[in-house]
Amino acid sequence: MAEAATPAPEPVANVGSPKRVLMVLIVGNAGLLDDILTGLLDMGAPGTVVEARGLMSLLREEMPIFSGLAAMLPETSGSRVVLSFTTSDVVEQVFVFLTNEIEQKNRPIAFTLPVDAVLGDQSEASPAAAEPGPGGG
Amino acid sequence: MRLEPLLKPELVLVLEGLSDKESVLHALANAALGSLNGVDQTALERELAERERRYPTSTPDGVAFPHAMLPGIQNTVVVAALLRPGVSFGVESHPAADIVFGTFGCSEKPFGHVRLLARLARIARGPGALDRLRAVGDGAALFKQLVDEDRLHG
Q1: Which of A118, A129, A137, B4 has the fewest C-beta atoms under 10 angstroms from its C-beta?
Q2: Going from the N-terminus, what domains does chain B have, and what CATH number goes with each?
Q3: Residue A132: pLDDT band by 50, 70, 90 thresholds?
Q4: B36-45 LR contacts (CB < 8 Å, sep 24+)
């Protein structure tokens, strides 16, 4: 006998305020990852960290046609990409933190993308279940 | 997450003459108990000790972050203490810890506790913060200094 099909959950529309966003940080200085992640956690922005390589590193090490130019390429050998599904008010705090507490030369590239619909995020930290921590922020 | 709303003057202490980690954990649990309704002190100390057994919570900067999470804890509690003298938390490469943040929270809300630990870590890493905290004379001054350090981080 066929089991009754479970109805697929409805994606949650992005309504109300603050807006839900995907925040992307590209951290070129791996030595600062600890400080940056600590700051993100403090502000309630958990994420997924992806080990990545910068294009220049790839050119230098794996594409011989460019290797002769190695001396002219930046020394940065890798980077980490942090993806965080969060809200615009948290992003505002994160950007203040990055501006005030991370030296400009080490600051990650940071940007956000709007999130139209979400499915499957059931974590305690989910913006869908956002509950301000003590003292907010 | 701001630390200030979680700080209570009576839970910010200067503890003198404690000789080992166990006595520090006992003092932290004892202090927190009055703010944790219905939680058993023995269970609290056991949880603190078990966490330390898995991996000591001290840092190379002489700060320790012992913490206990139990399902019966309804509200997050922070006990901050200066230890005079400092006490080893069992890591040979770490100096004796003389600044200790004991934190107690609900095991069903782990992310909130991670946020709190992250906040404490940010405060401890602030330029000059540990020197300023170590320089205070008593619990009241430590409370005020912790509030000031917290405010530096927005």
Answers
A1: A129
A2: 4-151 (3.40.930.10)
A3: very low
A4: B36/B73, B36/B74, B36/B75, B36/B77, B36/B104, B37/B74, B38/B72, B39/B70, B39/B72, B39/B73, B39/B104, B43/B70, B44/B68, B44/B70, B44/B104
Contact status of B8 with chain A (Cβ, < 8 Å): no
Sketch out chain A's domains with CATH numbers: 19-116 (3.30.70.120)
Helix (H, G, I), strand (E, B) or coil at B112: helix
pLDDT tens per residue, range B88-144: 999 999 999 999 999 999 998 888 889 999 999 999 999 999 999 999 999 999 999
pTM of the model: 0.80
Q: How many CB atoms lie within 10 A of CB A123?
A: 12
**Subunit contact B1:A97, Cβ cutoff 8 A:** no
B1 CB neighbours in chain A (<8 A) are: 42-44, 133-135, 137
d(CA A70, CA A48): 31
